[in-house]
Amino acid sequence: MDRAQKEKVVEELGQIFASSGVVVVAHYEGLTVAEMQDLRARMREAGGSVRVAKNKLAKIALEGQPCASIADFLTGMTVLSYSDDPVAAARVVVKYAKENEKLSILGGSMGESALDIAGVKAVADMPSREELLAQIASCIGAPASNIAGAIGAPASNIASILSSIEEKAA
Predict the structure, then answer these.
(1) At 86, is the secondary structure helix, strand, or coil?
(2) Are 22 and 89 in contact (CB under 8 A)?
(3) 122 and 138 assigned to the same domain
(4) Which terms does the UniProt entry file under GO BP (predicted)?
(5) Are residues 40 and 65 in the same domain?
(6) In terms of domains, do 8 and 88 share one?
(7) pLDDT at position 80, please?
(8) How many other C-beta atoms lie within 10 A of the C-beta of residue 135?
(9) Contact 92, 46 (CB under 8 A)
(10) Were 102 and a residue from 27, 30, 66, 133 both cysteine, which residue would form a disulfide, CB within 3.0 to 4.6 Å?
(11) Are 109 and 148 part of one and the same domain?
(12) Mean pLDDT by 10 residues, the chain (170 residues)
């Protein structure tokens, strides 16, 4: 790899570190090509990506980044998993690591915050952006639904009382 290619890789990695919602660093020593392709496919399906890069280039790309503290995790055979959604990449990597012991999570970053293994697992357990939006929408819609039910309840109660009186009279 010549200098121009290295500079291009450093620039790409810098953009990944700057723009991703979450970056998870893991060791992948012993993973077969098929297992790595499976991880990539799962990550793509969740809206994220997987990147293997030389640790030295990744450390250069981390210089000046808010998440520069994750440079300590970049030793050995590391893989970077990242996504714009702050939960997606962490969720896929944690699930995959449970299924395949060859992938071991080292840590990661979420915005400016560095995450240890427990932090990555905690992020993976959080609801995704879409799930949070659905919860908010249901909370907003619930009072209106309750009001509509309360307004309609007296009329239905009167109707049921009238029908029971009519049945007794008949």
Answers:
(1) coil
(2) yes
(3) no
(4) translation
(5) yes
(6) yes
(7) 92
(8) 11
(9) yes
(10) 30
(11) no
(12) 86 86 90 93 92 90 84 90 88 92 90 86 82 78 66 66 75
CATH of the domain at 113: 3.30.70.1730
Which amino acid makes up residue 9?
A: V
- Mention every residue, 6+ apart, whose C-beta is less than 8 A from residue 43: 49, 50, 81, 83, 88, 89, 92, 93
Torsion of CA 37, 41, 26, 88, to 10 degrees: 180
Contact 23, 80 (CB under 8 A): yes
> How many CA atoms lie less than 13 Å away from 159 in the CB half-sphere?
5
Q: How many domains does the chain have?
A: 2
DSSP code of residue 74: -
| Residues in contact with 80: Cβ distance below 8 Å, sequence separation at least 6, in sequence order | 13, 16, 23, 24, 25, 50, 51, 52, 53, 58
Element (H, E) at 151: helix 129-169
What integer pLDDT is reported at residue 96 of this predicted model?
94
Residues 114 and 140 in one domain: no
CA distance 42 to 93: 9
Count the residues in the chain: 170
The domain boundary residue, chosen from 126, 144, 160: 126
> Which amino acid is it at 139?
C
